Amino acid sequence: MYRLISLSYKAKSKFKPACASINFISSIDSTANSPQNSGGFSSLFHNFSRFSSILSSGFSPDCSKIDNLSENRSGISGSQGLVHKRSFCSETEPSRESINYDVVIVGAGPAGLSAAIRLKQLCREKDVDLSVCVVEKGAEVGAHILSGNVFEPRALDELLPQWKQEGAPIHVPVSTDKFYLLTKDHALSLPSPSNNNGNYVISLSQLVRWLGIKAEELGIEIYPGFAASEILYDESDKVIGIATNDMGVAKDGTRKDNFQRGVELRGQVTLLAEGCRGSLSEKIIRKYNLRDKGQGQHQTYALGIKEVWEIGADMHKPGSVLHTVGWPLDHKTYGGSFLYHMQDKQVAIGLVVALNYHNPFLNPFEEFQKFKGHPAIRHILQGGTVLQYGARTLNEGGYQSIPYPVFPGGAIIGCSAGFLNVPKIKGTHTAMKSGMLAGESAFNMLHKGSPMETFWDNLKNSWIWSELYRARNYRPAFEYGLLPGLALSAFERYITKGRSPWTLKHGKPDHEATKEARLCSPIEYPKPDGIVSFDVPTSLYRSNTNHDHDQPAHLQLRDPQIPQVVNLPVYAGPESRYCPARVYEYVPDDDGQVKLQINAQNCLHCKACDIKDPKQNIEWRVPEGGGGPGYSIM
Question: Is-contact 160 207, C-beta < 8 A?
Fold first, then answer.
């Protein structure tokens, strides 16, 4: 894969951006001769490197010369005639250059790449020349992708029908599908709430890398290592693109020697595919009041914590799928676990905890460690090795919480909008389909003059809408507790089949659900045994997470006094527990006063703090591009 040109080698053979250059190289060390690195990406990043050197030289670019950078792009596989020439300007600020595209997509995940691929497919079918750019904050495509993942190929079948013949990393069909209700020492088998016939156990980060290769074959320009930090508007408040953040800024705000201004990526259409709780998407939703214009209810979230293990051959059953509810969570806290057997003796194991839990002493990370010690689970892992660790929030609001996805100048797609099917525990297929529909609407807008609002109509007429409608009452049923939730969801599935004449509402927003500490009992967690349970530093090391320490903290307190005045005395400092990376710690200062310390370099980009903080006092902003986790098999 491809990374920023300025890299330093880190323990465990992972790269991190060490300086702010926007130059690229086409391949690194042992990947230089990889088949994945041939063709499009190499020539594309070579040309971008040439462009970057012009910008870095301090000269105002001659646009006629810059246009000639596209002369070698005919070498991109399958992209002849599909790449626009670029124009560069500095209309708004002399020190920040801009690049013009027809479509700018933020996020190289399933939704963003599916949108780009579908749009370019239509360009080929209709012989139309439109330029598409995808910007990705991860150091490489797939680096920030974390999911279960039992994959339903429905959307992929529509997007790339020949995916099997074209080498998609989808090899392990589901062989068994079990669902348990756990008590502390027992596992009661229940009917599975989902049907996984025809589905596959996969690594989503690997699938996304493959989609990136398919995208560049169509002439799509993908820029990993660039964090979109700002929305650009014109005089009429219409979105006209995004800007990446400045790089090479020190923690104190001064410019380091390697300072580089961000770049404006301007497009006639901007698609936001940032994933759950995307920072730009949330700003757009608030600015244009999209939540109320859509289904009207607030979004509700969960935190998923996951590990990938290599286990003994005698324990490994490729394609075996297990989901559980119940222990270790209390009966008022919604959540559950998964255990998926992948290929090569690998298993994915995780715990999902709804973030509307009440007890501020609950620690999702520790609940996950406790879960792995259950008699039905421990024997599978014992003797194995943890290969990777990670965490990410997910949308659980479903049908009731879908915002109106169209805004002036673009649309919100995928998990940024929230299309997860809760009873299926799947959102990749719906995210991909939403991206495909948005890509079609963007093409028709640019080619035929159709309004972008057709995306909303097409979304409501698609199988996404009918699927989420049938599943709409599953998640809010658990507002009444575990056993009533199981009964109500079974009624919805087996009796009304999702056609009930009512639609249940969600409870309080997640941050409002936290009770005061005086109303709750502290939770004592067992110490890690180093065999199946581990501490946070050990786990964090396995996530390959890294940020440049000398940069402004991307986790900002709107009011620096709230942790000491409210969170600690009233809620017992919940941020020190809901964060799965120990970003937030209460430590005594030189005067013995306990204050909140933010270890931003630990951040997994899970967004739990942005969601769960009781007073919504934490603002999550994008750090320098290329920072964060480095997932490879998640």
Answer: no
Query: CA-to-CA distance for 345 and 317, rounded, in angstroms?
Result: 8
Distance separating alpha carbons of residues 326 and 332, to the nearest angstrom = 10
pLDDT in tens, 168-181: 999 999 999 999 99
Of 274, 268, 195, which is closest to residue 232 (Cα–Cα)? 268
Beta strand ranges found along 473-602 (DSSP E): 555-557, 584-588, 594-598
Tens digit of each residue's pLDDT (9 = 90 or more) over 26-80: 333 333 333 333 333 333 343 344 334 434 433 333 333 233 333 333 333 333 3
* Catalytically active residues, by annotation: 147, 392, 428, 579, 603, 606, 609
Higher pLDDT pick, 274 / 77? 274
Q: What is the mean pLDDT of residues 339-348?
A: 97
Report residue 63 CA to chain centroid gap: 36
The residues facing 576 across adjacent strands are none
Cα dihedral sign, 198-201-205-210: negative
The structure's pTM equals: 0.86
Distance of CA 528 to the CA centre of its chain: 28
User: What span, in angstroms and rounded, lies between the C-alpha atoms of 187 and 190?
Assistant: 9
Strand stretches in 11-131, DSSP E: 14-17, 88-89, 98-106
Q: 212 is written with which tokens?
A: 């990136």
| Average pLDDT rounded to a whole number, residues 185-189 | 97
Length of the chain: 634
CA count, 13 A, side-chain hemisphere, 346: 18
Conformation bin of residue 425: beta by default, left when phi > 0, alpha when psi is -120 to 50: left
3-state SS assignment for residue 522: coil
* Full 3-state SS string of 362-408: CCHHHHHHHHCCCHHHHHHHCCCEEEEEEEEEEECCHHHHCCCCEEC
Strand partners, 426: 421
Instruction: Provide the CA 415 distance to its chain's centre, in angstroms.
Output: 7
According to the model, what pLDDT value does residue 89 have?
42
